[in-house]
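Page 37, continued from 36.
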């Protein structure tokens, strides 16, 4: 059953054929929003039905900036699949370059709200990944576009379930007052919760500011949504 949001948004999505991207696009479409997604040539069929494809290169703003309008919201989901410390070079070449190019395209298109999936920070590991995502946030701030930064640590779902093995560790950290904040910030969330939070961000743009939603905010949105997705 399709549920319609009170205000229909027009979203331009990068990374729409990815693990999080497909879930987000489906959720946006169910809510009655219009969605266009950037894809490489030949990947158009990987997008959910109802989403319009824009063929281009996420690492080159010139290849898609003229197709961003008339979107009012830009959702940046490009990222290295299954990030790990060995992929530091790819974080720089793909994750960072793509967000720089997206910010450039969004600014030139008059986008009113930029939604960026960053990462929980500070964090004790994965420093190269955290640093690149922090630089991505800085690029968006420099563009002066009102933005929402979502900071998950790990998103649980199909093919992404190994953190279930260490969930008891979070329970132990929770019992230690000095570690409780870290445990809350780095707690994995489900793909449904992640998609729900991104849709909530799209539907409730900030008033000329940049806001940060950490895991606690995203979990609260999932537990107490204004309307079911």
């Amino acid at each position: 059953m399709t549920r319609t949001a009170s205000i229909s948004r027009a979203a331009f999505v990068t990374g729409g054929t990815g693990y999080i991207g497909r879930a987000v696009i489906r959720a946006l479409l169910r809510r009655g929003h219009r969605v266009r997604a950037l894809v490489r040539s030949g990947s158009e069929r990987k997008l959910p039905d109802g989403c319009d494809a824009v063929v281009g290169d996420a690492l080159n703003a010139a290849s898609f900036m003229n197709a961003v309008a008339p979107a009012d919201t830009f959702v940046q989901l490009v990222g290295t699949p299954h990030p790990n410390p060995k992929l530091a070079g790819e974080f720089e070449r793909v994750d960072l370059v793509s967000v720089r190019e997206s910010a450039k395209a969004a600014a030139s298109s008059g986008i009113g709200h930029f939604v960026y999936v960053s990462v929980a920070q500070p964090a004790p590991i994965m420093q190269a990944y955290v640093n690149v995502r922090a630089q991505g946030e800085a690029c968006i701030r420099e563009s002066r576009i009102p933005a929402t930064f979502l900071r998950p640590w790990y998103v649980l779902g199909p093919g992404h379930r190994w953190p279930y093995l260490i969930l008891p560790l979070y329970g132990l950290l929770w019992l230690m007052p000095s570690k409780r904040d870290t445990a809350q910030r780095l707690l994995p969330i489900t793909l449904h919760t992640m998609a729900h939070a991104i849709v909530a961000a799209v539907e409730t743009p900030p008033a000329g500011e940049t806001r940060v939603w950490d895991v606690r905010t995203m979990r609260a949105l999932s537990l107490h949504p204004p309307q079911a997705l």
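The chain has a mean pLDDT of 89. Flag for discussion at group meeting. The CA atoms of residues 150 and 213 lie 5 Å apart.
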